[in-house]
Amino acid sequence: MASNSPLPLTDDDAVVDIVQLEADIQKSAPRVMKHMNADHAASLKAYALAFGEHPDASKTQSATLTGLDVEGFWLDLTLEDGTTVSNVLVPYDRRIQSAKELHAIAVDMHTAAFAKLGVFYKIQSGFYTQAFKMMGVQTYKSAKKRPFQTMTVVTLTLFAMAYSYRSYNKTPTRR
Fold it and tell me: Sorted alphabetically, which Pfam families does this protein's record hold (predicted)?
């Protein structure tokens, strides 16, 4: 009698899955590296400082993403004294299941790295300034998708402000 349950994975199946996963990651790697190096230098530095597997990672001045694989991100670091350290592993925060997870993992690691480094590091690195910019971009994108709702909210807000201003100015002042 045939069973509908899947067959248990053998060691060969696991090797094939890892090989396929590695191939998928390598297809995405050039695009991910270009994007991260161009747009997320602060995140790469935070990854190195918080999670870099090198004794001098805590002295990182800047970091460049040079590779990624099933283990994690591979960075070249420039230290505060100007020396460089190559091929520093920053392991993913969880086991990667597919190349499509790279974005979610990078975002989660960004949050975890900055949390680990603390408030003073966030202030020094411009974390909060960048966060406000991103909020503005997301608000703009949301407003662009829903122009009628956005105009309604803006109009009601302006009416409320005008009413409050008018009411405030009509209130007699005490002498």
Answer: DUF2470
Report domain extents, the chain: 11-125, 127-175
Cα separations (Å) of 78 from 2, 4, 33, 111, 120? 60, 55, 17, 22, 22
Neighbours of 52 (CB within 10 A): 26
Tens digit of each residue's pLDDT (9 = 90 or more) over 102-157: 999 999 999 999 999 999 999 999 888 888 888 888 888 888 888 888 888 888 88
Global confidence as pTM: 0.70
HSE at residue 72, side-chain half, CA atoms within 13 A, is 17
Q: What CATH class has 11-125?
A: alpha beta
So what's the pLDDT on residue 40? 94
